[in-house]
């Protein structure tokens, strides 16, 4: 079995989409992980082998600003790209 076959890839993207939708519905009650984001206005939520980094923008609406593989230095990556993220938002 190949690791990234069509069905596995389809399921992975479905899980990411479902994770984003879960965040949009439940972000007020999710744990704040500013230890990982090094930033209180960014939220982070694990989905499979990645973290979805998000910003709430309205009721039941979030913007996903990054998809970062677990194990990476998330705070450093977000610091490095902070200007770009803020500009885009």
Summarize the structure.
By secondary structure, the protein is an alpha+beta fold.
Would you write up a description of this structure?
The chain is α+β, with helices and mostly antiparallel strands. It is 44% helix and 26% strand. It has 4 helices and 3 strands; from the N terminus they run H-H-E-E-E-H-H. The chain has a 3-stranded antiparallel sheet. The longest helix is centred in the N-terminal third of the chain and has 21 residues, at 6-26.
Distance between the termini: 41 Å
Q: If helices are DSSP runs of H or I spanning 4 or more residues, what is the number of helices?
A: 4
Query: What share of residues is helical?
Result: 40-55%
Question: Strand portion, in percent?
Answer: 25-35%
**Multimerization state:** single chain
Low-confidence segments, given as residue ranges, are none
Could you tell me the mean pLDDT?
89
What is the radius of gyration computed over CA atoms, rounded to a whole number of angstroms? 14 Å
Form type: globular
Strand order of the largest sheet: 1-2-3
Sequence of secondary-structure elements: HHEEEHH
Helix/strand-derived category reads alpha+beta
**Biggest sheet architecture:** 3 strands, antiparallel
Q: What is the β-strand count?
A: 3
Question: Keywords, please?
Answer:
three-stranded antiparallel β-sheet, alpha+beta, 89 residues, 26% strand, 4 helices
List the helices and strands and how they pair.
Layout: H1 6-26, H2 34-37, E1 43-47, E2 50-58, E3 61-69, H3 74-80, H4 82-88
Antiparallel strand pairs: 1-2, 2-3
């Amino acid at each position: 079995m190949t690791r990234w076959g069509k069905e596995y890839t389809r399921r992975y993207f479905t899980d990411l989409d479902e994770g984003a939708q879960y965040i949009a519905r439940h972000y007020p009650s999710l744990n704040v992980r500013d230890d990982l984001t090094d930033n209180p206005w960014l939220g982070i939520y694990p989905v499979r082998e990645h973290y979805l980094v998000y910003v709430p923008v309205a009721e039941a609406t979030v913007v996903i600003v990054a998809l970062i593989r677990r194990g990476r230095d998330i705070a450093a990556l977000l610091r490095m790209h902070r200007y770009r993220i803020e500009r885009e938002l």
